[in-house]
Amino acid sequence: MNFEFAIRLTEIMMGIAFVQQSAEHLRIFTHERIIFFIRLILAILLIIGYETTWVLLALLLIGLIILYIFDGPYNGGADRMGMLILICLVLANLLPTLYWREIAFGYLAIQLILSYFISGWVKIINPHWRSGQALSDVFLFSAYPVCESLRKWSKATRFLFIMSWAVIIFELIFPLSLFSSLTLKMALIVAALFHLSNAFLFGLNRFFWIWLAAYPSIIWFQQRIFVTMG
Prior knowledge:
The chain is mostly helical and 230 residues long. It has helices at 3-28, 33-48, 52-69, 77-94, 98-124, 127-131, 133-141, 157-173, 181-202, 205-213, 215-229.
């Protein structure tokens, strides 16, 4: 995957994520509708490739306004990842030389790798995650399950113990997937399925779309590293 194609694919996928996020506000909220309607139009323009540099700058401005309105990234990690991707894309379009544009886009790939590894590290040092209790508590007490019938999963302690360790191990070894294009693709498929399952089980649909938008950066990054080493 060459640099230009990876950038363009990231723009399209981030645009899709922003369309989905903005559409939610058009349905539910009232006084933020104008700002999210503008964001929706800009996201569509980004998807079709119309004046992408100016559209990215406008989206960044809108993103800063949204941070001000909600006093920070109100949707947590998904909003942070969205701003990270947006900033890296702006820099990858505006920086004066290819070297620095690649640095900006490579930074996104490194942050994506760290997002998985650090998540795994936080879990493995937490005894509740190591025992499976953390997942049990999510199903039993949190507001995340999309339906009440899923709360019965909290009693499947053996299954949740296995799933807890499967998630922990996968996230910790994720950086090792960079050693080959095949292992990276397999890891990204597993990660995408993980985010998709979270969307179905817990309604965390924003994480699915925005994390996938960062995947082209790591595919390009892995190939770029091996070209340099070769």
